[in-house]
Q: What sequence folds into this?
């Protein structure tokens, strides 16, 4: 990662939306913190950002996002706001030569964080030094019941894909499903799919059905590649009884199954969807745009 | 409730601010009822929890909860949540712990949505209470913050006078201090000395709705406002809207009711720069995403996102 480029980008984006006096204040705080100001200066200026910088969205362009990805692979500050960028710049100015000291201060700021601060901190995880040291913290973020904080860890954040073991990864996906959050904004979602997760998701779907509740169609995306035997029965059921969106999801999932029966099933139950999948006119990306983003 | 209050102007339902309510002790039913009754925002002052805390971590967790989980939780019901941060007078008497809490306060006091140092003041008026009241008044000066004063339940009149003396000793402008839990015996002095004068509608120990109406009839609506201080005791989270309803029924002009149940508290606390009507009328996109799960808080209780209140409330035994 090119951390100085990250800081440059953040400053540039912030410069477009923040007022001059706010930018001056931020510059001053960063200088002080970088040159060894007492911890209290760091804590209070981190909190005080919203007193100096308005909470406008950064509204980044595709070029901006490409530049972000270039500076730090997988970094996607799509929904970032000005105060969030300011807070990240303050955290990035914290000296980190002394690892223990740095991690202690970071731990304190996480512990005391309010909702907006928590979101800023978790989204900044992929930009921080000592990435391996934040694993427990990130897993802790997944346990929260504050959806926005959970999503700050899980969505458009390369940290979990890079540092979560399979257990932590699976819990994250399941928690998102449980909270009604979408899965598509997870970085490297398909790549980290695994048979254990597929089984957990199928169990979850059964629980939902038992309670006469709907099953988020996106769930089948991670079941498909491992769908055999009984999971195929489940997908057949969805193709049979599901809504249009659910049937599309089931068709996409079946088309990813390595088992021959999946193809037959798809051909018998939904030949029209099979054709759409094969011709490339129905993909998970289309599904996301048509079925999920439209709802958000 | 909201029907009666809004009978005169159904298109523009009345909005309420409860500037003192301890939501950490309340249920989701309370949040729904408050929202249905038109409460659009609440201020939760840091206080004790019914029994004294015994470690610093307990304070740390409590303050984090006020700015974290509770803020989020309120948002799920379309209510905007603010708080005050401070060491309350009861727990000031554990001096060793209180000293540690004093070191913690600056970390929370500057956070977004923290509208004052409070609730601070006297309980028994001990030396320790006096010491930490002074120290927090000084902290408020240093951080350029408002102060929210809890006046004692015992020896109230003297405690209230002394609280104002102390604020003036620290050079505080009375217009930046809110004196809470007033009654018929303290209202005059508090208003005369230029402070914001808050009344707590707390059925058994503090002020009743009826008495509150009399006070507004006698003293008018300048610098006076009403709160519920609902907490873990026998209390009513609908204290503000219910008092508003009674005031309207007793012929107090709607404009005065609006001041006492919404506007004055907003004016007082907006001096902090941390609370603004726009926060609930037209919140920035980032707040909508973080606090309300993408939904905006709808003006004045129209079309709340929560379940249909009528359906739920007509029969408490409905199973849904």
A:
């Amino acid at each position: 990662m090119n951390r100085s480029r990250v800081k440059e980008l953040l400053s540039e984006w912030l410069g477009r939306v923040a007022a001059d006096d706010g930018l001056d204040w931020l510059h001053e705080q960063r200088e002080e913190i970088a040159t060894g100001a007492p911890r209290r200066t760091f804590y209070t200026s981190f909190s005080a950002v919203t007193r100096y910088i308005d909470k406008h969205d950064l509204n980044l362009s595709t070029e901006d996002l490409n530049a972000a990805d270039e500076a730090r692979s997988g970094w996607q500050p799509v929904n970032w706001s000005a105060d969030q960028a300011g807070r990240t710049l303050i955290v990035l100015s914290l000296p980190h030569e002394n690892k223990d000291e740095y991690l202690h201060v970071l731990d304190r700021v996480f512990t005391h964080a309010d909702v907006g601060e928590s979101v800023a901190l978790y989204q900044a995880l992929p930009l921080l030094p000592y990435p391996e040291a934040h694993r427990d913290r990130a897993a802790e973020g997944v346990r929260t019941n504050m959806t926005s904080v959970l999503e700050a860890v899980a969505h458009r954040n390369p940290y979990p894909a890079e540092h979560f073991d399979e257990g932590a990864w699976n819990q994250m996906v399941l928690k998102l499903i449980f909270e009604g959050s979408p899965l598509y904004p997870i970085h490297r979602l398909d790549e980290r799919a695994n048979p254990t997760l597929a089984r957990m998701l199928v169990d979850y779907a059964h629980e939902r059905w038992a309670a006469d509740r709907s099953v988020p169609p996106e769930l089948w995306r991670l079941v498909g590649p491992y769908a055999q035997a009984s999971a195929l029965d489940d997908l057949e059921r969805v193709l049979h009884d599901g809504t249009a969106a659910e049937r599309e999801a089931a068709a996409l999932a079946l088309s990813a199954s390595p088992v021959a029966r999946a193809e037959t099933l798809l051909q018998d139950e939904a030949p029209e969807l099979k054709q759409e999948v094969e011709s490339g006119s129905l993909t998970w990306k289309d599904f996301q745009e048509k079925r999920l983003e439209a709802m958000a | 409730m909201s029907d009666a209050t809004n009978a005169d102007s159904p298109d523009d339902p009345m909005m309420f601010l409860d500037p003192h309510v301890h939501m950490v002790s309340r249920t989701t039913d309370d949040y729904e009822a408050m929202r249905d009754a038109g409460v659009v925002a609440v201020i939760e002052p840091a206080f004790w929890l019914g029994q004294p805390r015994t470690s610093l971590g307990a304070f740390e967790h409590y303050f984090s909860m006020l700015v974290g989980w509770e803020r989020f939780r309120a948002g799920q019901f379309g209510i905007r949540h603010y708080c005050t941060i401070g060491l309350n007078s009861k727990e000031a008497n554990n001096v060793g712990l209180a000293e540690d809490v004093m070191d913690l306060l600056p970390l929370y006091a500057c956070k977004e949505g923290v509208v004052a140092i409070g609730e601070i003041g006297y309980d028994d008026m001990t030396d320790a209470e006096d010491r930490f009241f002074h120290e927090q008044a000084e902290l408020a000066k240093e951080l350029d913050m408002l102060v929210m004063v809890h006046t004692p339940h015992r020896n109230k009149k003297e405690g209230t006078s002394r609280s104002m003396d102390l604020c003036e000793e620290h050079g505080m402008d009375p217009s930046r201090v809110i004196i809470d839990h007033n009654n018929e015996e303290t209202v005059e002095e508090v208003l005369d000395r230029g402070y914001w004068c808050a009344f707590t509608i707390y059925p058994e120990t503090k002020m009743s709705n009826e008495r509150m109406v009399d006070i507004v009839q006698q003293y008018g609506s300048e610098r006076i406002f009403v709160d519920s201080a609902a907490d873990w005791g026998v209390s009513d989270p609908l204290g503000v809207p219910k008092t508003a309803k009674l005031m309207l029924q007793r012929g107090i002009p709607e404009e005065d009711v609006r001041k006492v149940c919404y506007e004055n508290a907003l004016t007082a606390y907006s001096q902090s720069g941390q609370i603004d009507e726009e926060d609930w009328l037209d919140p920035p996109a980032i707040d909508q995403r973080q606090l309300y799960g993408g939904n905006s808080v709808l003006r004045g209780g129209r079309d709340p996102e929560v379940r249909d209140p009528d359906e739920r409330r007509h029969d408490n035994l409905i199973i849904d």
